[in-house]
Amino acid sequence: KWAVIPDEFGDIKILCNSIKAVPCNNLRLLASGTFCEMMMLESDSSKAASTAQLIPREIDLEHVVLSLSWLCCLCAAAPMEKIHTGSILGMSRMVILINGQFPGPQIETVTNENLIINVFNSLDQPFLISWNGVQQRRNSWQDGVYGTNCPIPPGRNFTYTLQVKDQIGSYFYFPSLALHKAAGGYGGFRILSRSVVPVPFPPPAADYTILAGDWYNKNHNDLKAILDSGHDLPFPDGLIINGRGANGYTFTVDQGKTYRFRISNVGITTSINFRIQGHKLLLVEVEGTHTLQNTYDSLDIHLGQSLSVLVTADQPARDYYIVASTRFTSQVLATTAILHYSNSAAAVSGPPPGGPTTQIDWSLEQARSI
Q: Where does the signal peptide begin and end (predicted)?
């Protein structure tokens, strides 16, 4: 869906159209001193759908404010098919959606910008969102963690105000109460460098987010009851990538070009290993810090961690597996997405490439190399 600019704002409408419209879940600085702010007008709680309007206003470019309205609701996996998310691991499952999406809409901002995020809780339980990795400087009460934030009651809203001061990098947000994270409600959060600050690698052809982690067929209430009874959680039922099971998500690349992948482990219990069949991973950033640009065949990503790699589409034109598998577990779970060359001559075939399983020393040595 695209945001609609009213006809009375003709000059701004022409400007917006010149950049091929503006996604309603992503805000953009359109011209010097002009900003289009998204406002929630109405919502259908059954689908968590929203209608957005862009309103132009003059701003100080040194203090850009991103203003978003979010609606959080609980829906079954079957109706989610209507918003392009299929059943998860083949099971009907209650999932927390944000603005009708799982994963939730991606937040994209720039160093030093201020964010105002209004969260409406349409669940029947208290709710909080935490901004994993965002430094809450002198405003810890915006971190979305119980003890510093009061939970948002059912049917109410809370407006988060935070600044991504002196930060860059790849992060994610997630619900922090009542094991809601096991029901989804998370999404990507990227902080781009200011244009005047050099980045130590050429601009990629595209910038992709991968949210990978373990998944349970039990709902979050049942999982919470297990923990409350003093027992450990059972072994996960599987892994998902961007809310989907095996081969459920495709990333399209052009042969010869280089792409950035921002990968986060959004799971509950397990570390993962990430790899792309036939391709090297050039590590360039870990949680907001540019790194020595070492090349890896695969990378371990532990719970809550995020990193960025550059991947060059330098292989024969076909489709390749993107693989995430569990680490340090006696039973190994794995899931796949697809790296699709735009001029692909063949689909993926054969088994996905294997990776490390229980080797702790291997993981420690890799961490020391970063």
A: none
Q: Which domains does the chain show, CATH number per domain? A: 10-192 (2.60.40.420), 207-369 (2.60.40.420)
Q: What is the DSSP string of 279-306?
A: --EEEEEETTEE----EESEEEE-TT-E
The 8-class DSSP code of residue 143 comes to S
pLDDT digits over 289-319, tens only? 999 999 999 999 999 999 999 999 999 999 9
Question: Beta-carbon neighbour count of residue 156 at 10 Å?
Answer: 13
Measured in whole angstroms, the distance separating CA 75 from the mean position of its chain's CA atoms is 19
Q: Which of 367, 365, 362 is nearest to 327 (CA)?
A: 362
The model's pLDDT over 117-160, given as tens digits with 9 standing for 90+, comes to 999 998 889 999 999 888 888 888 888 888 888 999 999 999 99
pTM of the model: 0.78
